[in-house]
Write a structure and sequence with these properties.
Elements lengths: L2 E5 L6 H8 L3 E5 L12 E6 L2 E6 L2 E2 L16 E2 L5 H13 L5 H8 L10 H16 L4 E4 L11 E2 L20 H4 L7 H8 L3 H7 L1
Parallel strand pairs: 1-2, 1-8, 2-7
Antiparallel strand pairs: 3-4, 5-6
Pfam family, one: WbqC
Protein name: WbqC-like protein
Length: 205
């Protein structure tokens, strides 16, 4: 039985879902600290001008003389910034001509209208929605303490690092003729372009 440990992203890169489809059980890290420059609050899509980063604004803890680590599950979203409408408009602009945007539109749209207090809660709903779109039935569990070196499990929490450069096999992308193939964008790019075939693509890489 293959068990993996992952951190919860904002939709998440294709490289993470490649691991998820080949796992028997996924442990979701709930006890880690929030870190910048990760997929926890950003995703990359293929926009009309190339690679586009969509970032969720968060409320930072006040600075003190002693460095304070903020627990990821407690990070609050800054909803004074109307980021949800901006992100949804960006997705529609980028993918409305893709083969399968309309196929998944009704499932994804509610995520960008409901108000969420915490980043973790929002990302969990995004994760569950993508699993439904992929028709991927995963056995899930959640950590109850932070373990730096877990045993008998594949620790893939590093896939949350947005700085990692990962190459994947090509599939058709909306603006590919203009800017070429962009590797390892968010899972939505694969869904909108490949539709129901996305799960087979993930299993094959």
């Amino acid at each position: 039985m293959k068990e993996i440990l992952v951190s919860l992203p904002y939709f998440g890169p294709i490289s993470q879902f490649k691991e998820l489809v080949n796992a028997d059980k996924v442990w979701i890290e709930k006890e880690d600290n929030f870190q910048k420059q990760t997929y926890r609050n950003r995703m990359y899509i293929y926009g009309a001008n190339g690679k586009l980063s969509l970032n969720i604004p968060i409320k930072h803890v006040p600075k003190t003389k002693v460095k304070v680590h903020q627990k990821y599950s407690e990070v609050k979203i800054d909803n004074d910034d109307k980021w949800q409408s901006v992100h949804w408009k960006s997705l529609k602009t980028a993918y409305q001509t893709s083969p399968f945007f309309e196929f998944y539109e009704d499932e994804l749209a509610p995520l960008f209208s409901k108000v969420y207090e915490t980043l973790y809660e929002f990302n969990m709903d995004c994760f569950e929605t993508v699993l439904e779109c992929l028709q991927l039935d995963l056995e899930k569990a959640y950590t109850f303490e932070y373990n730096k070196q877990p045993e008998n499990i594949s620790d893939l929490r590093n896939l949350i690092n947005a700085k990692s450069l990962v190459e994947i096999p090509k599939y058709m992308q909306v603006f590919q003729e203009k800017y070429g193939f962009l590797h390892n964008l968010c899972i939505l790019d694969l869904l909108f372009n490949e539709g129901p075939n996305a799960i087979e693509y993930l299993k094959s890489i």
